[in-house]
Amino acid sequence: MQNQISRKDWTLIWVLGMAGQICWNIENSWFNTFVYDKIAKDPSIISWMVGITAIVSTLTTFIIGTWSDRIGRRKPFIAIGFICWGIFTIAFGATEFLPKDPLIVAIVFIVAADAVMSFFGSTGYDAGYNPWTTDISNPSNRGKLGGAFAAMPVLATIFGAVVSGIIVDRFDFFPFFIVMGTIVSLVGVLTLFTLNDHPNLKARKNKHGYWHQFAEVFNIKTVLENKELFWVFIINCVYFIGFNVYFPYITIYLNNYLNMSYSVSGALQGIGLVAAIFLTIPVAKSINKGKTTPIILFAVIANIIGLLLIATSSNLVILLIGIFGAGVGYVLMIQTITAWVKNLFPEQQRGQFEGVKMVFAVCLPMVIGPLISNIVINRYGIHMVIDGVSGMVPNESLFLVSAVITLFTLLPLIPANKYTKARITH
């Protein structure tokens, strides 16, 4: 019988996962809103932040993931990463007090603070926590694990939208960053006393040294030996390019274009997303049986319908249904992809392959998506003066463009399905 995940490890999966996802949610949503409100209403600043931090996160996961494979340890990277992640979340909030003249100085400090925070976030979460969850799981429970991974960002989004919205409305941004950063650092301290590496995790040292081992994953032979895995990576990439076209700006859209308060927009996103989580329970069994293609197909269709509804109405009920549809697509995509890639990762290169996954799931989508957003907002957005400051605000066109891009996710699904069928039948 295959080993099951212990209750203690499940608790740590949820505590670490939720702390990490809340922190990512703050970066991906509230950092953008913070910059818009406190620094300048310029979407190009957000594009720079998102793009640079995506590159930093990916390189960090490669470097630290290879290091963790070499020494056969995940715990120190998880603990140090989370502790420093929280500290630099607070430091980012302190950029509010930087002088705005000249503006370029404030922008440089903001982007740099975000990049440093992302370095420690990727050290703790992507290069440490993610491969640790692969180490302690197996194909019989990865559908359930994928469900947890899918639910956590939704719960974090709900927390980020509802609770964070209330805190920001009442106390402003800096106290909010202090509270959230402190929580993440305390979770890092907790792991020092509670988390253990899996006993079967062994050090894997390439005799030619660290950098030779680091470069192994870039060999074309690696791609050819893992064809199914790389097609799944491409599915992930295309979907999240579409996702990153609209997601960094959805709160800005609701607040500035539809004139909602942070509390109302937060409640709207929270209520719309929460129901999507319950789909992860029945879907987990299908994922464990290898029925990944129909789930991805359904996720893409639900996501597109949701985006079209958001784009075509300002009615609260229709917006709620639209956010639910987009949430269903998001939840099922993450759940399915998480289990799918964990079953395909080479056993001795799990940390390193988290870096490869980051290229397709984070780096490319978070560079390409916001670049597209920047073009769409500047060309088709609405010019507004908010609190005496002139700027461009996103409108419905952002969601329509995202829906079109998301549709292309179905193309790499065809070869991925072919290789999956061949693997299962063998």
From TrEMBL:
Its main location: membrane. It is found in: Cell membrane. One of its GO terms (molecular function) is transmembrane transporter activity. One of its GO terms (cellular component) is plasma membrane. The chain crosses the membrane at residues 12-33, 45-65, 77-97, 103-125, 145-167, 173-195, 229-250, 262-281, 293-311, 317-337, 358-377, 397-416. Residues 1-421 form the Major facilitator superfamily (MFS) profile domain. The keyword Nucleotidyltransferase does not apply. It is a multi-pass membrane protein. The keyword Cell wall biogenesis/degradation does not apply. Keywords: Cell membrane, Membrane, Transmembrane, Transmembrane helix, Transport. It comes from the Bacteria. Pfam families: MFS_1. PANTHER family: INTEGRAL MEMBRANE TRANSPORT PROTEIN, RESISTANCE PROTEIN MDTM, PUTATIVE-RELATED-RELATED. This is MFS transporter.
